[in-house]
Amino acid sequence: MCGIVGCILKTNKAAPVLLDCVQRLEYRGYDSVGIATCSSSGIRIKKDRGKIDEVSQKLQLDELPGEMGIGHVRWATHGLPTQENAHPHTDCEGKIAVVHNGILENYKELKDRLEREGHHFTSQTDTEVIAHLIEKYHKQGLSLEEAMNQTIDKLHGSYAFAVISSDEPNKIMGVRKESPLILGLGDGEYFLASDAPAILQHTRKIIYLADHETFIMDDEGVTVKDRDGKVVDKKIENIKWTPEMAQKGGYDHFMLKEIHEQPKAVKNTLFEVSEIEKIVSKFPEFKRITFVACGTSYHASMVGKYLFEGLLGLPTDVMLASEFEFAADALDPESLVIFISQSGETADTLKALKIANKKAETLAIVNVLGSTATREADHVIFTRAGPEIGVAATKTYISQLTCIYLLVACMGRKKWLLEQLQNIPDCMEEVLSYEDEIRKMADKYKDSNDFFFIGRGFSYPTAMEGALKLKEITYIHGEGYAAGELKHGPLALIDDEVPVVAVVPPGKSHDRTLSNVEEVNARGARVIALGASDDDVLNFEAHDMIKFPPEISELLSPLIYVVPLQLLSYHISVARGIDPDKPKNLAKCVTVE
Ligand code: F6R
């Protein structure tokens, strides 16, 4: 959802550093890219539409003079991805440049007024009003900082932005409101970014800005102020993520690396058990659980429902964050509302969290340290997946699931569950070793136009997640369905052109899903079955089968059965010539509603 970066260095190398930083943020948007640097000769900007490598080759983005500057990767919201709409944006005289992540809701009225006052706009973006407003107030005699503060007062919406000006060429200023922004402290060098992986190779000393905090950085340091203009003594966090964690490490794509990192992600998340026990020990008696999340995190929540209801007997709802406000009136004050989010910055989830905070106890399960959700929720559990760069969530899904299983084990004092979870990393390694077989399957099915994914109970979320992965990185239509619902409509779509992926682990749902497999078989579908290696009947019914160790119970199957589905989508994506790390129209962190 757009990424911004900035740096003040000791050397004249700001442009190559900014280019490197935006490249590491490309998962946030890849419609266009731009860099502005400031030196004694003023502000120089290079920007264009397209992926960073293409634009950089064309324009030599790293060849700009200056020790300081700002950069941007864009995921278009206002205005098409064009050269004019690419950031940085400037004022009328090109003396002020701005990069922005977020959405300005009142930009039209601001723009109309500024145009009436004689300002000349060159883009269709909401961002450009920031540059012109600062120009206006600066020309009225305010300092740049005062002009920025006046500007902030006029803006409605979400924003993290950074500003440079040739009038004060040694400074970068900016603010954060409802869009992520961190500052990095190097050795006499200073950085800013939307997300830590952008600057990990320069520093792991991070300041997390809170909403409404502004910052000014120059070559002497960083000052953070609150909305009343008082200097804030910010805590400097030493983050544990390393630069290597945010690199491909020999894999062709981040997504493949992250799929293979899943056993480790589970192991690391299992270490959180003592933290979870501490949190649980403070819980009052809850009468109800409500999960709130989006996308893949919503699928993890669906597994949570089966666990909380099945093992703890606690009535559990699962709600899409974007729908939460329409049903929150009935929220039970004796509820625990659990928010699941990889980024901790998803706008829909944060909005729901604000509403829930007024009515019930809240818990956030989040991967990104310092993210907004971690500051807003009453309790926080961290998933220990490490940075996830591929746009499609994989290892963070598995870590979210691990956290939910741990939470249920701790709340219900289920020692046996904790013990069984210890075996998951080894099982996962075994399943990952099927990759060659899955690659061949991907080749066989890559030209299909539609897929169905079916499962019941614990396998229903797995089917949903399998379908989502397929849609987002292969652009093939995939539908995740509760297997029993197929006969209530979608069966009409099934024929020999439509592969059906059936998730059929051994357990309570097995026989009924098997009969659904027989139903689709009778309509000519090609069935890819996921089941136990000793399930001969399923093997007989299936055209292709992915076989799992029989000891993986239905209860634990969501942690394991999804892995080959991630690999299947990954290999179909590659076989279709798509870059699975950068699927079209998507971005890693969705900071708009
Ligand atoms: C799918 C995917 C998205 C996210 C969703 C929520 O692979 O990544 O569906 O799961 O945008 O994001 P978070 O978990 O950051 O709140």
Q: Largest sheet, described in full?
A: 8 strands, antiparallel
Here the CATH topology of the largest domain equals Glutamine Phosphoribosylpyrophosphate, subunit 1, domain 1
What bound compounds does this protein have? fructose -6-phosphate
Largest sheet: spatial strand order: 3-2-4-1-10-9-11-14
CATH superfamily of the largest domain: Aminohydrolase, N-terminal nucleophile (Ntn) domain
- Residue ranges: pLDDT <50 for 5 or more in a row? none
Summed over residues and divided by their number, the pLDDT gives a mean of 95
- How far the N terminus sits from the C terminus, by CA atoms, comes to 11 Å
List keywords for this structure.
six-stranded antiparallel beta sheet; 593 residues; 24 strands; Rossmann fold; 3 domains; Glutamine Phosphoribosylpyrophosphate, subunit 1, domain 1; single chain
What would you note in describing this structure?
Helix 9 links the parallel strand 15 (288-293) and strand 16. The mean pLDDT is 95. With 593 residues, the protein is an alpha/beta fold. 55% of the residues are buried. It has 3 domains: 2-242, Aminohydrolase, N-terminal nucleophile (Ntn) domain (Glutamine Phosphoribosylpyrophosphate, subunit 1, domain 1, 4-Layer Sandwich), CATH 3.60.20; 248-422, Glucose-6-phosphate isomerase like protein, domain 1 (Rossmann fold, 3-Layer(aba) Sandwich); 432-593, Rossmann fold. Strands 3-2-4-1-10-9-11-14 form an 8-stranded antiparallel beta sheet, covered by helices on one side. It has a 6-stranded antiparallel beta sheet with strand order 5-6-7-8-12-13. Bound molecules: fructose -6-phosphate. Residues 294-297, 341-343, 346, 349, 392-393, 468, 472, 589-590 line the site of fructose -6-phosphate.
